[in-house]
Amino acid sequence: MSTPTLPAEISSALVDPKAYGEWDGLHEKFSWARAHAPLAVAETERFDKFWAVTRHADILEVSRNNARFASAERMTTLIDREGEKIARAATPNGDGHLVRSLVQMDAPDHMKYRLLTQSWFMPKNLRTIEDRIREIAKATVEKMLALGGECDFAKDVAAAYPLHVIMNILGVPSEDEPRMLMLTQQLFGPTDPEINRARAEITDAAQAVQMLQFVIADFENYFAAITADRRANPKDDIATVIANGTVNGQPIGDREANGYYMIIATAGHDTTSASTAGAIMELAKNPALFARYKDGSADTAGLIEEAIRWTTPVQHFMRSASEDCELGGQRISAGDWMMLCYPSANRDEAVFEDPFTFNPDRTANNQVAFGYGGHVCLGQHLARMEMKILMEELLPRLSSLQLAGEPARVESTFVGGLKRLPIRFTAA
Q1: Is residue 168 in a domain?
Q2: Which of 90, 129, 191, 250 is most buried, taking the most CB atoms under 10 A from its CB?
């Protein structure tokens, strides 16, 4: 059986941060791949070859088989050949994982560490903090209305609101939130010259890895102080759970604790920010859709789920085959690297009718933006609650909403979303 290979222009787009920033052209390439080579190898000059998994069904199959398709064996996010070599040399056991969080764990560690905080993010517990989240949402809306009818929603609202929520739950003081936002953007957007630490286009692998190491070190230094404080002065927050957590009867290691803090402090707000901005962008583009929701009487559940599908903030994770197997009619060999292309799955014509239309009325929205299976996003219920509460507090306060300029997405292959969303609005 011959191995299918993607055309060079599609392979190049999959590894190009600018393609993810442009978005529409990337989706054209995903559509071609789903139709002609839904599971095929991407070959580029700087990266080891990998399987591009573009169909919804195949991504579900990989995601439900964590033993067969591992997270810990190789890098879980795309990195070029030279960058991986440098990262492996820089890590204590040579695994290349600059951060060891839930994302980089397989069984049995993954579930043991996940269970440390999982109850905090279940709907039953979240109901106990709903009033706290609503107060944050109300304050966020008041700040937006005070801006005088025009703002960059991505920066002024969408970034700040979920950041404040998750830092409140984690236990980070509000005065440190700007620092957490900056570090998150530098961690997730190292290839975007408007966001990364160097504020320049980075093409050298050594420079890119070093820059990420500086960001990670800043996180680690910050959370080392948090750990020391919570061990001496426990509080009702997640930082206390992590600082005093045990696995197999032993305190969790510094590397695992730091990874835990970082995944909650970063993914806990950045992806929600992206989906929230995506929802507002579509309402600003479509006056009839905005009119439907602006009085607060319409159920926003469909709007929120569609915004998550539409935006797909986490754009890929990598998996490694642990054994020879078959997937989607192709033979996968042990050690093969695989890219789960979530934006492609969320536009799969076999799953979503008219997938390139923003439609809050989808009766079955099986989006995979939160992942699937054992690694499904720990904070998915919190993200939905945050978005729901903000829409309930914001939309009835507006009588008009429109774009005031051209939106722009982050140039990143990993976590994306709107970095600019200029809007014009009138208060009700």
Answers
A1: yes
A2: 191
